[in-house]
Structures are given as C-alpha cells and as structure tokens.
Amino acid sequence: MSYNIRRQKSALDxxxxxxxxxxxxxxxxxxxxxxxxxxxxxxxxxxxxGDRSDEIDxxxxxxxxxxxxxxxxxxxxxxxxxxxxxxxxxxxIPLGRGLGxxxxxxxxxxxxxxxxxxxxxxxxxxxxxxxxxxRHPDNVAAALNGGFVGTYLNDLDAExxxxxxxxxxxxxxxxxxxxxxxxxxxxxxxxxxxxIRFPWSKEIKAVAIIPDFEVxxxxxxxxxxxxxxxxxxxxxxxxxxxxxxxxGQSPPDAQxxxxxxxxxxxxxxxxxxxxxxxxxxxxxxxxxxxxxLGICLSGAGPTILALATDRFDIIAHVIIKKFKDAGISxxxxxxxxxxxxxxxxxxxxx
Length: 350
What we know:
Blueprint: E1 2-6, E2 9-12, E3 16-20, E4 25-28, E5 42-48, H1 64-74, E6 85-91, H2 101-116, H3 123-134, H4 137-145, E7 147-153, H5 158-164, E8 193-198, E9 205-211, H6 217-222, H7 230-246, H8 254-260, H9 267-270, H10 277-283, E10 292-297, E11 304-308, H11 312-325, E12 330-335, E13 343-347
Parallel strand pairs: 5-6
Antiparallel strand pairs: 1-4, 1-13, 2-3, 3-7, 7-8, 9-11, 9-12, 10-11
C-alpha cells in the first residue's frame, strides 16, 4: 500500500498564517513486508530542497519527519513503524527561508503516523501532537488545515502546562539513545491550541521572493527586544484586527491592506539580518506598483511576501533587482491559497 501525503507551506507572520499551493508536496511511499532489518522498521529517502547538503539526515531515528512519527506512534503503544516501511519524501519547501519548512515537516510526520498506525486522529488532535514539538501554532495550523488562519495557545491548568512544556529532548525519541529511549513519551494535553479560518479574497495571490541565503529562527529571535512599548504593541494589534477582515473583501482595498501590513514588532529589528530589506519595504507601495496590496517578511525571513492582484512578475522582478543591488540573488514563486490542508491519497500498488 502506498500513500501520497500532501501538506501545505505556511507563511506570513506569527499571528496569522497562509496555507499555499506551491511548495506543498511531501510524498511518502509506504509498503509493508514481514521482516525488517532497518532501524525502527523504516528506510528513508529524500529528494528536493537541501538534498545536496548535509541538512537532510536519512537516519529515521534522526530525521525530523520520522522522529515525529515515532513520537505519535509511541504515544499509542506502537514502538516502531510497521515492518518494513519505506518513506520517500519529496520536498519543495526552501529550508531556513521563513516559509514554514519545519512546521510542515512536523505536520507530515504526524499525518504519516496517523496513517501507518491506523490511529484515526482528528485534525484537532493532530494539532495537539504537532504543538508538543513545534510549540507555537501558526505554521502547523496552516500546514495542517490550509486556508488563512489565526491561532492562539490555550491557558492550560498547571498539570497540563507542565506536560506541554516538557523539554523537547524528552518528547521526541533521542537518536542513539538506547532501546528504551522514548518508548513512553508524554501524551499531549487536549486542546493545546485553537485556530480559526478567515475569509480570503479570490483575487489575492502571494508573490514569494526567496533569497539565496538562510536566516536561522534562533538568530532572528535573538535580535528582537525583550520589551516593547505599549504604543508599538497597540500599533500592531490594531492593524492585525483590520488585516484579517480586509484580506477577505472583494475587491480588496489596496491602501487599507498596505497600511494594515505595516509592522513595529519584528521587521525593524531584523533589517540587519537581511540586506536590502529596508529599501524593499520602504519603496514599494500600491501607488508606485499597481496590483500590489502589501509587503512583509514571511515568518522570520529572509523571504519577502508580496500580496497582489495583478502584475505579479513585475512586482517580483522589482524586488529581485533591489536584492541584487544588495548583492543577494533570489528566485520567486507565485503562490495561491489552498483550503484543504494536509491530505492523504491512497495509491494502489502497481
């Protein structure tokens, strides 16, 4: 039996997220036989972004996708994959670019476990398992559910909060940790996080300009201040409230969306990490570039996300030229919203 498992790329920022149609396919071919000499009964292969680097570990006890699967399976008293499971991953999500690659991998691992283990988990329960690993709901909620979503973490009681905040090293099975490592992992509390789907105007597409370098999430967080002024927090909260409504209007109000996508919480502090960012964010407007609605960093960057209704290639090449002037090469993709989220197709064996 084979399964094609698709999950969506997520992007935008850490309050609202998009599940988009390009950079989505993660394919797991699963076939079971009677015996297996492979670790945890799994053999892993990979193609796509990062396949020529040492970033992709094909040891199923070290790879993020299969470690997530093992965590979910072991929470249901299944200590290994069914023997023998072949997992082939096809990934087109650029790594370390602010496009939600790690969140999508976590979702893929959870969906994989749900299928091979016959767990019949709902998407709400799968979100709980994802949040034990990813720890913030924006990327995983969009990758799992698709659409334009807003998320938050629930206030849990003391016992559930302690369980949710168990160190990640005690949640995921540890590589080379011995035969008993991770056999009884912490089962996630119920309803760790919630999400809601917002309307999305059919005219809007996302132009993703992807620079040829990475910004680590850890480094992007280090540059943020420990405290913010009340004025800056209010500035962003007002605009997020407007943005979630404005992006669902048809036709979209370009000036309202552009103003609502302004930010004082993270982009000003991350400019030093991304050459050309100041010039890009300050020079493109709906007036100067018709068709443009708004522009921002995708996640922690360095990818730039430009929402637009027209002239997508012109907008992309203007931004690419500004990056080139700063010594950075880029590529670009046109992304459309996908409402379905992570999905599974069972493919008959030939």
